[in-house]
Amino acid sequence: MSDLGSGDEGSSSQSPQAHVEQELATKMLQIQSKRFYLDVKQNRRGRFIKVAEIGADGRRSQIFLALSTAAEFRDHLSAFSEYYSSLGPPNPDNVPEDGKLKSEMMMKDNRRYYLDLKENARGRFLRVSQTITRGGPRSQVAIPAQGMIEFRDALTDLLDEFTQDEHAYKHDLPEGNQMHVDNKNFYFDIGQNNRGVYMRISEVKTNFRTAITLPEKSWPRFRDILADYCDKLNKPLGGQGQSQGIGSGPGSDQHTMVGNNTQQDSGTSLK
Known about the structure:
Layout: E1 22-31, E2 34-43, E3 46-54, E4 60-66, H1 67-86, E5 100-108, E6 111-120, E7 123-132, E8 139-144, H2 148-162, E9 177-181, E10 184-193, E11 196-205, E12 208-215, H3 219-233, H4 252-258, H5 262-269
Antiparallel strand pairs: 1-2, 2-3, 3-4, 5-6, 6-7, 7-8, 9-10, 10-11, 11-12
Helix pairs in contact: 1-2
């Protein structure tokens, strides 16, 4: 989320709307001693898949995949499975020093995914590691090689169901933004639902909160109206090269909006 979900989708504004997630579907796979959960989720930035691995000892690890990345991963699973099928029985005397039999890499925005088919004393497995370019811990899951086909088929079922109308969803929506004026905070959050992309503008102060929601198609007109007011309020007086201020020039309405708290009055006019 980051195409994605909770692991890195934090909004710079930290507004209350930034981390809302909706679970759309889930699949559980039992592969040898491990359980895998494939959860299709949706937040303000779009849809993504969370892959969680639960080991026999209860330890949990997870990675996040945008739907487009999940489709690429599905294709790699087919290639890795074919390669695995072509291998003979494990030979302890012919194992690469690092244990890697085949490797690939995927990139998506600020994420890198490393796919390594490996072999050790316990057998062969596909390790999928996710890293973030701005730093932070590496997360990874390990899929037993014998379960790659089953994993691929489950992933395909979810992709077939949730990418049919994927063209209606936009990915990598802009991060939220924040503005502080006097004792108020204004939050600007971009989200989407079944009706399309929208902007929610929230005004927050002590024990008070209000918000308006603007559909994407209204943004250009909304921008033009604000720009028009800005131009009128800052129009120079006849040839003097000075902007109108309180008590200067005609138009008492203009004086009211320019005075004391332009942003606050403008915010009130949006309600």
